[in-house]
């Protein structure tokens, strides 16, 4: 059955075979960048979201709420300062699920070069880029447009390249030449920062500093490098649909164009691009093991007529690995007044469900609630 689908003029078109058009787009292996390079002036139908989604997207509430910004400077030298930072991170993780960090130890020149490396990958010759194009998630390096393209009701205006960094990274020569050195260096630095943040989060839970690390929350690391080309009709589509992350924690490097928003107190709040800062957010699995103490918050990225926007999301505890470790609400946090709210699961099971569901605007956590 063919379902009437909105077109860029707001009408519906009966003779629209979405499956065929999606396959035609996917077969180009050129992504959204390829559409822009071809000079499209209208958003193709497969990217147009239904009117109710578009109305919701455009209904952004301006607010005076201040997004949490946490200075990590001095935490390894001053115990009092460390305690202050732990308290700040605890509060942000319980209320916002998001915060920005500065003085995190990764030099600005490395952050800038990482963003440049992502641009170089996505803007290189399409024939070179095509060799990485696949929908096989077991590949340690893969590039595509929309991981859920084949199942989503409407595609997002972005392309992505994925790198599996830990526990079993690709061989150095397997990384794309245009970004090989910086991906290797940045991933080392972000892994170190991630472990430090997990120690601070452990402290915020009243646990020993290495508790979350001992639970293998830092064993798996995947980096997803997004490229959002300028969109000719940004009011018809979106960069990334509303979702929460299927991991323990994400460390995000974003450029200065903005567009990332989080859902806080039923309002969409923009995450301000801050020079030298990294955005940290709690993932679904962290909410699960903390029994809702730390919140995995829904977020999205708007499409824009300005671009390209570039970001690098480092996911701790993301994707399939050799571990079959079972995760459930930590016994240290449970009591008669606070019984477990989720059933036990594995990273593999959670990721498989998340991918099958796609970015449909609902939280995968609901599926695992008791």
Automatic annotation (TrEMBL):
Coiled coil ranges: none
A GO MF annotation of the entry reads: L-ascorbic acid binding
Q: Which InterPro entries match?
A: DIOX_N, IPNS-like_FE2OG_OXY, IPNS-like_sf, Oxoglu/Fe-dep_dioxygenase_dom
By its UniProt entry, which PROSITE patterns does this protein fall under? FE2OG_OXY
What Gene3D superfamilies does the annotation carry?
Answer: B-lactam Antibiotic, Isopenicillin N Synthase, Chain
Q: Tell me which Gene Ontology terms the entry assigns under biological process.
A: coumarin biosynthetic process; response to molecule of fungal origin
Question: Which residues are in the Fe2OG dioxygenase domain?
Answer: 219-318
- Which key words tag this protein in UniProt? Dioxygenase, Iron, Metal-binding, Oxidoreductase, Vitamin C
A Pfam family that this protein carries is DIOX_N
* Family indicated by similarity: Belongs to the iron/ascorbate-dependent oxidoreductase family.
The protein's name in its UniProt record: 2-oxoglutarate-dependent dioxygenase
Q: Which organism is it from?
A: Scoparia dulcis (Sweet broom)
């Amino acid at each position: 059955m063919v379902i009437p689908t909105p077109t860029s003029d707001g009408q519906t078109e009966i003779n629209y075979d979405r499956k065929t058009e999606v396959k035609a787009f996917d077969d180009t292996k050129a992504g959204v960048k390829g559409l822009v390079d071809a000079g499209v002036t209208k958003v193709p139908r497969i990217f147009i979201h239904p009117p109710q989604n578009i109305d919701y997207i455009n209904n952004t509430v301006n607010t005076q709420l201040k997004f949490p910004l946490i200075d990590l400077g001095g935490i390894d030298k001053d115990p009092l300062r460390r305690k202050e930072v732990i308290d700040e991170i605890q509060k942000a993780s319980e209320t916002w699920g998001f915060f920005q960090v500065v003085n995190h130890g990764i030099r600005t020149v490395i952050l800038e070069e990482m963003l440049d490396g992502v641009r170089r990958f996505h803007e290189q010759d399409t024939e070179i880029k095509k060799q990485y194009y696949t929908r096989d998630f077991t590949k340690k390096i893969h590039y595509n447009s929309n991981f859920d393209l084949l199942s989503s009701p409407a595609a997002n205006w972005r392309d992505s390249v994925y790198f599996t960094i830990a526990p079993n990274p690709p061989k150095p020569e397997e990384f794309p030449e245009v970004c090989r050195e910086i991906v290797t260096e940045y991933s080392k630095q972000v892994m170190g920062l991630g472990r430090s943040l997990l120690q601070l989060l452990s402290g915020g839970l009243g646990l020993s500093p290495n508790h979350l690390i001992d639970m293998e929350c830092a064993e798996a690391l995947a980096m997803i490098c997004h490229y959002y080309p300028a969109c000719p009709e940004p009011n018809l589509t979106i960069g990334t649909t509303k979702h929460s992350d299927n991991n323990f924690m994400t460390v995000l490097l974003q450029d200065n164009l903005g567009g990332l928003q989080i859902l806080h107190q039923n309002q969409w709040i923009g995450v301000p691009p801050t020079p030298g800062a990294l955005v940290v957010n709690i993932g679904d699995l962290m909410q699960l093991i903390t029994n809702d103490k730390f919140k995995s918050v829904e977020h999205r990225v708007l499409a824009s007529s300005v671009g390209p926007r570039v970001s690098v999301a480092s996911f701790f505890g993301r994707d399939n690995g050799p571990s079959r470790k079972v995760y459930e609400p930590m016994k240290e946090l449970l009591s008669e007044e606070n019984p477990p709210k989720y059933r036990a699961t594995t990273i593999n099971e959670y990721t498989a469900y998340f991918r099958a569901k796609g970015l449909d605007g609902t939280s995968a956590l609901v599926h695992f609630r008791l």
